[in-house]
């Protein structure tokens, strides 16, 4: 597969080069030249595979000659060694013999090592990038801005990999206590993963990383690579789970269309879903669920895109006022608002509504959602109120609730049980560098480790 810059079709690259370069020359986002499409028979065959094998087959269409099918199969089996369950609020897993009235599921994308959906993209990206770097004998410095989950997933995926130094930039006070502990305990002294706490918001962190990539001297001096969703290597693997789970939902309920509700911030997850839809996955609609940082929902409602400074909320990983992937979504739909509206519907919710909803669902069903997933679930309910439709309604569960134990415990007034992976982190000594959000401070710090 070849990729082109969303700013200039004549600027092209193969997958491996787009992955390692992060941005196209001139600052454009890499877009696949075309998307694979599958016959009904192929869809049935892919849906009958397990997730890792289906992902590997899809990956053959998006990569290049440096990745043979056997390598991709081994990569995906190694990366995706965890469950991808769709569950009802009373805890039943989707299966083909479910009763017809079961039409509401949560797709739990948080069973990977860092307990958030970011593991899907980070683990694929980490393995494909190191495959190339080892082959070429090259090195890279990864800069990643995080609102909490990306940094953990990228740090975990790249930990200990030769030729790669990872710098995770996060906003002071902008991530949960559990997320911060996770970010600051991945890298031990002497390892290749470093946490940087910045005095500012997530938008400041994202801007800092963007400024670093816009500085040709820094890019060259440090061989910079982005692990944020501006990198197409992050977005492509996010299409795999939509593709496969839509096929699972369709196999269980052949006559029902599938609707996904996605708690959204930078819109990387939504972009993955839209790519899956364009590849022929049986998906009828996407609900874009925002907190009060809702430029995408505004765009869907009144056709105007107004990026703005972000405001802090309970669903902190979605506190994004200028979503990175907005241009990709427009490019996928030929810049047509009506085409985007044909598949996306949006709604946004304030913290009070989200907190009340999370608590009510927990009291009524025993199912505990993280605040982001609760925004997604509210979005799905709003969609159902606004459209009478017989469908399989799937809310995307983006993180394990224990990652947000501090805010959830205040809401439900009960302890949130900690999974062992997080309890283990809590016992480790954090290691973090405090820094002002300036390019000079960033380049000084990175320069201590990369020469
Ligand atoms: C838990 C959680 N939910 C939702 C999102 C939003 O995803 P996206 O930025 O791809 O829209 C994030 C992103 O960081 C997240 O960590």
How would you summarize the topology of this molecule?
Layout: E1 2-5, E2 8-14, H1 15-21, E3 30-32, H2 40-48, H3 51-62, H4 69-79, E4 86-87, E5 104-108, H5 118-136, E6 140-145, H6 149-158, E7 164-171, H7 177-183, E8 193-198, H8 202-213, H9 216-222, E9 224-226, H10 232-252, E10 258-263, H11 268-278, E11 283-290, H12 295-302, H13 326-332, H14 337-343, E12 344-348, H15 351-365, H16 371-386, E13 392-397, H17 405-412, H18 420-426, E14 433-435, H19 439-449
Parallel strand pairs: 5-13, 6-7, 6-9, 7-8, 8-14, 10-11, 10-13, 11-12
Antiparallel strand pairs: 1-2, 1-3, 4-5
Written overview of the protein:
This protein is an alpha/beta fold. It folds into 4 domains: 1-34, no CATH class; 35-81, no CATH class; 83-111 and 233-412, Rossmann fold (3-Layer(aba) Sandwich), CATH 3.40.50.1100; 115-228 and 420-451, Rossmann fold (3-Layer(aba) Sandwich), CATH 3.40.50.1100. It is 45% helix and 16% strand. It has helices at residues 15-21, 40-48, 51-62, 69-79, 118-136, 149-158, 177-183, 202-213, 216-222, 232-252, 268-278, 295-302, 326-332, 337-343, 351-365, 371-386, 405-412, 420-426, 439-449, and strands at residues 2-5, 8-14, 30-32, 86-87, 104-108, 140-145, 164-171, 193-198, 224-226, 258-263, 283-290, 344-348, 392-397, 433-435. The strands form 3 sheets. It has a 6-stranded mixed sheet. Helix 11 (268-278) links the parallel strand 10 and strand 11 (283-290). Helix 10 (232-252) packs across helix 11 (268-278). The structure holds pyridoxal-5'-phosphate.
């Amino acid at each position: 597969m070849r990729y082109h810059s969303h700013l200039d079709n004549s600027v092209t690259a193969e997958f491996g080069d787009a992955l390692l370069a992060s941005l196209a020359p001139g600052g454009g986002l890499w877009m696949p030249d075309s998307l694979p499409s599958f016959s009904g028979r192929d869809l049935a065959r892919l849906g009958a595979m397990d997730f890792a094998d289906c992902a590997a087959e899809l990956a053959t269409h998006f990569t290049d000659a440096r990745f043979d099918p056997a390598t991709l199969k081994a990569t995906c089996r190694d990366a995706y060694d965890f469950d991808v369950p769709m569950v009802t609020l009373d805890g039943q897993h989707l299966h083909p013999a479910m009763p017809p009235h079961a039409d509401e599921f949560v797709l739990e994308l948080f069973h990977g090592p860092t307990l958030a959906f970011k593991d899907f993209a980070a683990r694929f990206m980490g393995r494909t990038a190191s495959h190339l770097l080892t082959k070429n004998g090259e090195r890279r410095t990864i800069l990643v801005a995080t609102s909490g989950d990306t940094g953990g997933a990228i740090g975990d995926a790249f930990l200990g990999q030769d030729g790669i130094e990872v710098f995770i930039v996060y906003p002071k006070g902008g991530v949960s206590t559990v997320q911060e502990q996770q970010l600051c305990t991945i890298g031990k002294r002497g390892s290749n993963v470093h946490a940087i706490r910045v005095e500012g918001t997530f938008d400041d962190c994202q801007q800092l990383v963007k400024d670093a990539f816009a500085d040709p001297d820094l890019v060259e001096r440090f061989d910079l690579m982005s692990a944020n969703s501006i990198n197409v290597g992050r977005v492509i693997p996010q299409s795999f789970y939509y593709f496969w789970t839509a096929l699972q939902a369709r196999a269980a309920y052949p006559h029902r269309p599938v609707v996904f509700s996605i708690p959204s911030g930078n819109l990387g997850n939504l972009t993955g879903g839209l790519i899956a839809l364009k590849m022929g996955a049986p998906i009828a609609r996407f609900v874009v669920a925002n907190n009060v940082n809702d430029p995408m929902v505004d765009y869907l409602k009144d056709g105007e895109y107004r990026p703005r400074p972000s405001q802090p909320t309970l669903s902190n990983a979605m506190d994004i006022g200028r979503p990175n992937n907005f241009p990709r979504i427009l490019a996928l739909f030929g810049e047509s608002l009506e085409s985007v509206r044909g598949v996306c519907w949006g709604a946004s919710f304030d913290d009070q509504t989200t907190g009340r909803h999370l608590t009510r669902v927990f009291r009524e069903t025993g199912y505990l959602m993280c605040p982001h997933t609760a925004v997604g679930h509210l979005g799905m309910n709003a969609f159902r109120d606004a459209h009478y439709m017989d469908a399989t309604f799937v809310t995307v569960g983006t993180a394990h609730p224990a990652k947000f134990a501090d805010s959830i415990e205040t809401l439900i007034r009960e302890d949130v049980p900690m999974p062992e992976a997080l309890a283990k982190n809590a016992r480790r000594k954090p290691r973090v560098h405090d820094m002002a959000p300036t390019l000079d401070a960033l380049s000084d710090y990175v320069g201590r480790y990369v020469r």
